[in-house]
Amino acid sequence: MQAVRQVKIMVSKENFKLVSQFKKNMSLLCPLITSVLLYVVKALHGRSPYHCIVQKIREFRGLALTKLTIFTVVSKTSFNLSGIPLAARASRWMLQCTQVTSGATACTRITTTLCLPVTLKVLKDILTAIDKKHYCAAVFIDLAKAFDSVNHNILIGRLDSLGFSNDCLAWFTNYFSDRVQCVKSEGLLSGPLAVSMGVPHGSILGPTLFSVYINEVALAAGESLIHLYADDTILYTSGHSLDTVLTTLQASFNAIQLSSRGLQLLLNTSKTKCMLFNRSLPAPARLSNITTLDGSDLEYVDNYKYLGVWLDCKLSFQTHIKHLQSKVKSRIGFLFRNKASFTHAAKHTLVKLTILPILDFGDVIYKIASNTLLNKLDADYHSAIRFVTKAPYTTHHCDLYALVGWTSLHNRRQIHWLHVIYKTLLGKVPPYLSSLVTIASPTCSTRSSRYISLVTPKTNYLFGRLSFQFSAANDWNELQKSLKLETLISLTSFKHQLSEQLTDYCTCT
Q1: Under a CB-based contact definition with an 8 Å cutoff, are residues 319 and 346 in contact?
Q2: Average pLDDT, stretch 408-433?
Q3: Is the pLDDT score of 22 beyond 70?
């Protein structure tokens, strides 16, 4: 491992000015840099970066590896790219952009897949509480330098309790040992400083190891609900009485703090926030403060960014959509200002890599927003299509979809949503989400009873119909009127059949 830590990125001096200029001009396209580097590395080495990393580790340590995923430590290994000029690399990518796998899109899909079940479960619990006319309060917990505060001895003990073999424990002990860090500024390099705590930032293993380290903190939640996603934690509870809700939340928060201190994890008080979710109940004149063990009062907020999605106390998603608009408009503006530099194929790919991932991320969560808000995103989507097609502003949106061969945003959201439902039926999501759907047992022997249907739970008000439990069952049963599946098929086959079922038809008058 020692030699792996010494591999550095090298960029030739003659490319330095070009690198600076490239970074300045392409700042709004930073998600594409990943794609460029992955493409260049594969071209230089004739294989994927993953295999290059593993090969370097084998060469330095002579290890016989069977499970290689644990060695994809991106933060420690990089490649010498000075052999090919940066301009040529950028030009090659632009000319062959239709053949490049989107690193930005892939990263977005991975992040969405991992965060989505957690956010859907939290959203379901809050919506269910509001539907019952309950108060629901939450604490969004932020830990100070969480990844850097992991005690190696405690972590190794956690791994041992999970049944890791002695060889694995010895490997992890070696993985954490003899680490150093230094600072480089204006050509000057500081002396090395030993790193005795923490898990590596930017590595594949880092979040997983931290999750193992902090997992037992959830046992201290008591009567409240808690979700841990790496170092993002939400603690929440609900009930008829606001005073009872806040008292329960305070007790659980105190227990969580004590458990975290036992792991040498400290609370970041300034970034830990409270929120009261309330749609229709009377707002209290003054809320009781939630305090830390040190006596500091936590701030109540109306908006908080949780796992990439802005939640607001009314669950309107107005703040989230406003941020989406800001991101999309800045990128579309950049693309329009430089449209003369791109071919039609490049424009098509640029929008797919820089605009669509933003709109797709978390779309099955914010899809419950009002049509007024969602229509604002449609306008930005249409602008992106006009950039690709050069269609005039007066072109009808149905004609825009036909010109570019894409579907409407509403249809994209619905397709993604049905994918999530089907993954739930296949058991490809965590149990806390898959347990929310129940396949209905046929009550009579008819042709329609052979089709897979879901039990639709009862709700009190409109908000209950927005929860995962109700909307998943309702939308699936509606789909089955045309799909008519009698048995579960593969996810790939389902996506193919779904693409044939959900087609945009212009119903505008």
Answers
A1: no
A2: 94
A3: no
Measured distance CA(210)–CA(212) in Å, rounded: 5
The three-state (H, E, C) secondary structure of 123-166, written as one string: HHHHHHHHHCCCEEEEEEECEECCHHHCCHHHHHHHHHHCCCCH
Q: In whole angstroms, give the CA distance from residue 224 to residue 218.
A: 10
Query: Residue 509's pLDDT band (boundaries 50, 70, 90)?
Result: low
DSSP state, 380?
H
User: Of 267, 508, 282, which Cα lies nearest the Cα of 399?
Assistant: 508
The one-character DSSP state at 260 is H
DSSP letters, 232-257, are: EEEEEEEES-HHHHHHHHHHHHHHHH
pTM assigned to the model: 0.76
Torsion of CA 31, 201, 56, 46, to 10 degrees: -10
Mean pLDDT of the chain: 80
Is residue 278 within 8 A of residue 245, CB to CB? The reply is: no
Cα separations in angstroms, 397 against 191, 212, 236, 416, 454: 60, 49, 42, 21, 35
- Residue 506: predicted pLDDT: 60
Tokens at residue 228, please? Answer: 């841990």
Instruction: Determine the Cα–Cα distance for residues 127 and 133; give it in Å rounded to an integer.
Output: 10
Q: Which of 481, 488, 332, 502 has its CA nearest to residue 421?
A: 488
**Predicted pLDDT of residue 500:** 85
Question: pLDDT tens-digit profile of 438-453?
Answer: 999 877 666 667 899 9
Position 425 scores a pLDDT of 95
**Integer Cα distance of 464 and 139 in angstroms:** 22
Residue 309 has what pLDDT?
A: 95
CA angle 428, 434, 436 (to 5 degrees): 160
Rounded to whole angstroms, the Cα distance separating 276 from 136 reads 6
Strand bridging mode 273-277 / 299-300: parallel
